[in-house]
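Now for my pick.
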Amino acid sequence: MDRWPARPSVTERVLGILAAFSPERVAMNLSEISRRTGLPVATAHRLAGELTRWGALERDAHGVYRIGLRLWEVAALAPRGLGLRESAMPFMGDLYEATRQNVQLAVLDGMDVVFLERIFSRDAVNVLTRVGGRFPAHATGVGLVLLAHAPHEVQERAVAGPLRRFTDKTITSGAELRRALAEVRRTGVAISDGQVELIALSVAAPVRDRDDTVVAALSVVVPAHGCNPQMYVPVVRAAARGVSRALGAPSLPWPRASSG
């Protein structure tokens, strides 16, 4: 992390400590926190102690700090997380039972997707995502769905790049991304084949809220070899429509009960 500018606020210092943790650095001692944040050891010690007393950090007997459960409790209250997850879980469960593959729910945050929930099995194809993790939107099925329905200025920012390459199949040019987003809008689904790992393919569909706005995307990730992605389109689309209905999407009302 870069050194702090002159006279950072207490809030900036506290957030800097929390931001120093990552999937690659889930545990740090005080010296590491000081080095990663650029804070003096005494300041890092005082702030880490306050965060620990509140529950944002946990400290073990060896003086190693980790993110505390109190942050998970607070984060679970985020409206784009809690309500979406609760509405989506029954349909994600149905999609998993129908496919026995990885099922994921994600939202857009800047040029990344953040995964809110995931269902997987040991026999499913390996994926690099995790709950609470983020990934560049252009390289994922859920990301292509969310970008395709994002405001024009967000799409233009994505097309302008840079677009990180993960495999030879990753979309890395603005023109290619623009075509891919147009195809998602035309078909209503995104098929991302080998963009992150060559062994995996994802099929994703949009989730709409009561304003008919696309607020999330649902996907299934399957082995790429010998796969016909079209066979997964109906079940993914049905699951995403189910979540949308649960969220009150007016364009997708629940079917009326038969009067006969």
In short: The chain has nine helices and nine strands. The two ends are 67 Å apart (CA to CA).
